[in-house]
């Protein structure tokens, strides 16, 4: 039961985040991303002007899309692990720490994207 729960919870979280990242990337590519206080890369530099917002988000599209694909891959890996591991309590740490590791990679990629976007936005007004 614990392995199934861990797999399901990480999968749900990864799929939701992947969907949000893909949605943001699609809005940026369609030219529909506008400066706002709730959705997007918000820093002092990106919020300074519409020009900075657009430039920062356009610079981050490839990382957004790549991270979304990576999250889908991580979800698949978790389900493969769940399928091949024995269905007992010994499987829980393997799945949990795999999911935790994937989460660490996600956070690292999103931080890289944030700092790249912030630098682009800062260069507009710097």
Automatic annotation (TrEMBL):
Transmembrane regions: 6-25, 67-85, 91-111
Keyword field: Membrane, Transmembrane, Transmembrane helix
One Pfam family recorded for the sequence: SdpI
* InterPro entries recorded: SdpI/YhfL
The name this protein carries in UniProt is: SdpI family protein
* Taxon lineage: Bacteria, Bacillati, Actinomycetota, Actinomycetes, Micrococcales
């Amino acid at each position: 039961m614990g392995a199934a729960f861990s797999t399901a919870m990480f999968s749900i979280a990864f799929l939701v985040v992947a969907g949000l990242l893909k949605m943001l990337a699609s809005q940026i590519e369609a030219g529909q991303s506008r400066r706002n206080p709730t959705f997007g890369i918000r820093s002092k530099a990106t919020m300074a002007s519409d020009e900075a917002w657009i430039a920062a988000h356009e610079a981050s599209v490839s990382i957004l899309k790549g991270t979304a694909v990576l999250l889908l891959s991580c979800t698949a890996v978790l389900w493969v692990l769940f399928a091949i591991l024995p269905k007992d309590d010994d499987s829980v740490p393997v799945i949990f720490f795999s999911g935790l590791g994937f989460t660490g990679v996600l956070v690292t990629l999103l931080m890289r994207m944030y700092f790249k976007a912030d630098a682009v936005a800062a260069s507009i007004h710097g």
